[in-house]
Design a protein that fits this description.
two-stranded antiparallel sheet; 519 residues; mainly alpha
């Protein structure tokens, strides 16, 4: 038998022993990185400010652009190293807190990326190739940090959305590439607003990428009607309104007819141009009626976007001086004072007239999302007698209760419970309008905390499923039942007849006033 020789070529080599870094050594490393960071950062700030201040004079050659990219790449690496060192597993809480104390994520975006992108943008088209190179570099860095330093994920996500938008704007030749980057930016902004639904700035960013003008109006309005509004949107929203308010000429914006009149109505409200308001509202309502009759499921999204936009207008786009907001928060206000506010009266008129048109089509399931939004808002103000007094005038209460009674087959014992009516099905998911209402001032205590915890792709949020119609009807009845029982609205629930009715209906319809307790 031949001798068996031992082959050592496949012996496993053990991983070299590593020693954990001491806290003292790690702290020294972090301090050293930060010292280098602030020097490179100061140089980048100086260069970017000088170039932005001398745009008409500064003409850079290829070598100079490459040198600037190398400088800013060095700064990005310094931020990266600081973040990795300060968030090392061996770091103590004080060391981990340094990135937040020094505001490193924000500084990384402002000084490491944004300022230089603006320099590059102002030198287009000569700087195009260099801007593309730097965008890919900075995007890759942010994507890496999103995966490896998740504690600052909110910042990384928003930065990735911003850079996707820059990249989209550079693509003029290949429409498919432009669509890819547009979709990418939308997805990042949607992810950001899912994580921070009360930050108005995120909806403003998303509005720039809106697929249609109705969605753009909704997003710009929402950016002002959340707990942390983006106040500059009061200026930027004029870029939406001004072209639509032009009736003729080459600058007139070409839009679908219904969208044109709806956005124009809101533009007139926002700019308080009332002489054209009534005529535009009449045109919009006529077209709305036709749109509901003609379309199928496509009106579902249109309906709840119109409802939310109308409510934002009634709230004067989140103004702290708005009477409804003040009334709900217990700040004294009077009906007499508010009736002098023509803007509020007209926005209330628009809301109520739109609701009346919707209620005429109440047998059609596609108008239920609109009704759901209105009932959710009614729940918000129903706990304030003063707010309800301001809002109730000339609302079509009789039509509303007739519509609610038509849904009564879906009334269950769950409707009477204070608890949010959770669907019985295991495969439940939020309605499309739930995502749209999330974060608004008047829905902050509406949804349960867990309601949006399921991972849902952005393009699936607007999908309407068959099981949602009966669930939505039950939700509407739940809202109406609790509004009726709060004692501040004209709606009354009769437990014997199991029907909704209106207190003093003739006065509600005619004058918008009624005496509570008289039926």
């Amino acid at each position: 038998m031949p001798e068996v020789t031992k082959d050592n070529s496949h012996d496993i080599i053990l991983q070299p022993e590593t020693r954990p870094i001491s806290l003292e050594l790690l702290a020294t490393e972090v301090r050293g990185i930060y010292a280098g960071l602030i020097m490179v950062e100061a140089k980048c700030i100086e260069v970017d400010q000088r170039l932005l201040a001398s745009l008409t004079q500064a003409k850079l050659n290829g070598q100079q652009w490459q040198a600037l990219i190398i400088l800013h790449r060095t700064l990005l690496y310094e931020y990266h190293d600081f973040l990795f060192a300060s968030q090392h597993p061996s770091a103590n809480p004080a060391l981990r807190q340094l990135a937040l104390e020094y505001d490193i994520p924000t500084r990384m975006w402002l000084h490491g990326v944004y300022a230089f992108l603006e320099v590059l943008r102002h030198h287009l088209p000569a700087s195009l190739d260099f801007m593309l190179d730097f965008l890919y570099l900075s995007y890759s860095m942010m994507a890496l940090l999103y995966e490896t330093i998740p504690i600052f994920a909110d910042t990384w996500i928003e930065c990735l959305g911003e850079m996707s938008q820059y990249r989209m704007a550079l693509e003029d030749e290949d429409i498919r590439d432009r669509e890819v980057w547009t979709s990418n930016a939308r997805n990042w902004y949607s992810k950001a607003s899912d994580r921070a639904p009360t930050i108005g700035r995120l909806y403003h960013h998303h509005a720039i990428l809106a697929t249609n003008v109705l969605q753009e109006l909704f997003l710009r309005s929402k950016s002002l009607c959340v707990a942390n509004p983006f106040n500059p949107a009061r200026i930027s929203i004029l870029m939406l309104f001004d072209p639509v308010l032009i009736l003729t000429g080459k600058h007139q914006r070409k839009l679908p007819t219904l969208d044109t009149h709806f956005v124009r109505v809101h533009g007139l409200l926002f700019k308080q141009i009332m002489e054209r308001f009534d005529g535009e509202v009449t045109q919009f309502l006529r077209l709305l009626n036709l749109q509901i009759r003609r379309t199928t499921s496509s009106f579902i999204e249109q309906g709840y976007l119109i409802a939310i936009s109308n409510i934002c207008a009634m709230l004067d786009f989140g103004s702290k001086d708005n009477a409804l907001i003040k009334a709900v928060e217990g700040i004294p206000t009077t009906i007499a004072d508010e009736k002098a506010d023509i803007s509020f009266e007209r926005s209330r008129h628009l809301h109520h007239k739109t609701l009346a048109v919707i209620l005429e089509q109440a047998g059609d399931p596609k108008v239920l999302p609109f009704l759901h939004v209105v009932l959710a808002f009614m729940r918000y103000i129903s706990h304030s007698p003063c707010a309800m007094d301001l809002w109730e005038a000339r609302l079509p209460w009789v039509q509303l209760t007739t519509t609610l009674n038509a849904l009564i087959d879906h009334f269950s014992e769950r409707v009477k419970h204070d608890k949010f009516p959770e669907p019985a099905e295991d495969d439940w998911c939020p309605f499309p309008e739930d995502y749209a209402m999330r974060g608004l001032l008047w829905t902050r205590d509406y949804f349960p905390e867990y309601w949006f915890t399921k991972e849902v792709e952005d393009d699936e949020k607007s999908l309407e499923k068959a099981l949602m119609t009966p669930q939505r009807k039950e939700r509407i009845l739940w809202l109406a039942y609790h509004v009726a029982n709060c004692g501040n609205s004209p709606i009354h629930w009769d437990s014997t007849t199991r029907m909704f009715s209106v207190e003093c209906a003739d006065k509600v319809v005619g004058e918008g006033a009624y005496q509570r307790g008289v039926r």
